[in-house]
Automatic annotation (TrEMBL):
Any one Pfam family match given in the protein's UniProt record, by short name: Aldedh
SUPFAM superfamilies in alphabetical order: ALDH-like
InterPro entries: Ald_DH/histidinol_DH, Ald_DH_C, Ald_DH_CS_CYS, Ald_DH_CS_GLU, Ald_DH_N, Aldehyde_DH_dom, Aldehyde_DH_NAD(P)
Protein name: Aldehyde dehydrogenase
Biological source species: Fictibacillus solisalsi
Catalytic residues (UniProt): 226, 260
GO terms for cellular component: cytoplasm
Domain Aldehyde dehydrogenase: 13-444
Alphabetized Gene3D superfamilies for the sequence: Aldehyde Dehydrogenase, Chain A, domain 1, Aldehyde Dehydrogenase, Chain A, domain 2
GO MF annotation: an example: aldehyde dehydrogenase (NAD+) activity
Family: Belongs to the aldehyde dehydrogenase family.
Alphabetized UniProt keyword annotations: Membrane, NAD, Oxidoreductase, Transmembrane, Transmembrane helix
Amino acid sequence: LIIQIRYEVSLMKEVSAAGIQQILQNQRTYFATQETKSLTFRMEQLKQLKAGIKKREHEVIDALALDLGKSELESYSTEIGILYEEINFTIKHLKSWAKPKKVKTPVTHVGSKGFIIPEPYGTVLIMAPWNYPFQLALSPLIGAIAAGNTAIIKPSELTPNVSSLLSTLLQKLYLPSYVSAVEGGVHTSQALLEERFDYIFFTGSPAVGKVVMEAASRHLTPVTLELGGKSPVIVHEDANIPLAAKRIVFGKFMNAGQTCIAPDYLLVHSKIKASLIEAIKEVIQAFYGPNPIESPAYSKIVNERHYNRLSGYLKEGMVIYGGERNDSKQKIAPTLIERVKLDSPVMTEEIFGPIFPVLEYTSLEEAIELIHSRPKPLALYVFTENKNTADEVTGRISFGGGCINDTLMHIATPHLPFGGVGESGMGNYHGKASFDTFSHRKSVLKQTNRFDFSFRYPSAKNGLQRV
Ligand code: NAD
């Protein structure tokens, strides 16, 4: 099977600009037939998507193992199972989400009725990153289908096995005039961005997010930008240390730290710093064994460029745990570093890997000020047993989303919209938020013909005087 997937990758062909225009034109024509707007049709496509993934679960797991060295457990829970949950939730609620909503009208509009009708934008572009390459391409697609759009998906070129699999899967499930994957590198992304879409949903880095928004502005295309940044984790003096350690290690080292909402750096109260670090070391060993780079449960770094970038960070502080690397496997062990300078790259760039700078504070105010002095994070985590401390942190600091006494878990519930703020992104999705993201809210007023007030009209007979 692995040989077969590799063979497919070698066959992967980039689509030319003319090819992209043709797909887009076909999708516009298909969208105009109105077929994608039928509720039964949308439900059917979502069911097909779930069945299609189910049929190829093993291929997904193999492709993720080849591209990222992901374990089967991690692939299932973070790339496959999460999609099933999202599809089930969407199917369950779609009828009520899609229904036109009646709203009140003011006295000036007596006799009339107001409606908000959710309508699909049309043909949307979904651009995906490489870190959860399967899930982050298909999760937005669920929202796009639910809302009644057609879609072009651009998978990440850095995970070619998953990219190829996505293309094959979507070809089997849908006509290209409805949903199509366009594979290729940066210049394919650029060629796509030249075209006019009705909506662009981008997941990736803040730097490319700016490129996307600039391109979208040329056509006044609305965008959702799911970006990244440095997500802090605060562990206060009254935290439950064993639980905090377990949940931090879970969030930081899953997928070898290549998670957009992974804790990026640790802010720990000086009173508990030593005990928390000891607890974190124990949990790392319990999760990944004494030699994590040999553990099949522990992912590799996606490519050489990122491996070298991360290796460079190791020189920017004192390694207090981990630091082992394996060049041929492109693996870096879970690593804790101290004495990092706040203006050094490891503390100014998104780490996006298994290196965890540890900073200490003596008053909560200090921790809050440090976070305030930086761009608004995508995620923030605070560990404390005190409600006032949690309220102060979540109330005062602006961030995309996060957890009190946990990490990552806010992303895995369809009841919480997921997205960034400021430099970490704009817009959000998951559950109803996905449906809303891919729908225009069309406002319609239905006027009564039973009576008509003449005072609203000009009257030549009465000059400027109103009657
Ligand atoms: P990236 O921005 O480099 O690439 C994402 C997509 O943009 C790819 O499809 C790529 O082809 C395209 N692209 C790259 N350079 C381009 C250019 N110059 N012009 C046009 N298109 C271009 O991001 P990545 O490295 O794949 O992913 C890592 C980043 O994504 C991190 O910052 C991470 O935090 C973020 N991320 C965010 C979320 C979220 O949900 N908010 C999820 C995963 C990853």
